[in-house]
Automatic annotation (TrEMBL):
The lineage of its organism: Eukaryota, Metazoa, Chordata, Craniata, Vertebrata. One of its GO terms (cellular component) is cytoplasm. Residues 56-185 form the Methyltransferase domain. CDD domains: AdoMet_MTases. This is EFMT2 methyltransferase. GO terms for molecular function: protein-lysine N-methyltransferase activity. PANTHER family: EEF1A LYSINE METHYLTRANSFERASE 2, PROTEIN-LYSINE N-METHYLTRANSFERASE METTL10.
Amino acid sequence: FSPSVLGTREHWDAAYERELQTFQDIGDTGEIWFGEESMVRIIRWLQKHKVPLDSSVLDIGTGNGVLLVELAKSGYMNLTGIDYSPSAIQLSEKVRDKEGMSNIKLKVEDFLTPSAELSGFDVCIDKGTFDAISLDPSDAAGKRQLYVASLGRVLKPEGFFLITSCNWTKEELLNEFREGFEILEELPTPKFCFGGRIGNSVTALVFQRK
């Protein structure tokens, strides 16, 4: 991929500072990455596979924390969100508090260098964070390797990893996560038609840690 400001911390700090101000001004929680259907898709999969409501869930790059709020509304109780942008965590805390979901834990953490206490999760979820890392102007390939290594550390053996991406195809993601993970399922995503060819603009996969 071509390097982009979307891969820089400065971009996301500025973006979430704006969203934080907007939330304080008018109560708007800001953008939901990949739309509400992406959250419904994740929650339906967890419910369909009877993932226990007390399972520990980590939202990697939580942003405004809306996914965690929806998980909490669906009955999930052991929820943690991390983001390397302090502004994002400030925003997600305000969204959490407005919704009265005090059991959601939120922390400023860089997933590429996770703290020791960030471990033992049953489920890890990524909506767009791996995409953003892939656009980092400084050593994106190395940072993708760090991401996979971090995932292996924080996710329990046989734990589930649900990733939603608009930059990577199924085959490419299978290659990126070939070390230590196996594919369980590809989730249905919206299709588009262009020039007579049908394709998916978004890829959503479920992996299991070996």
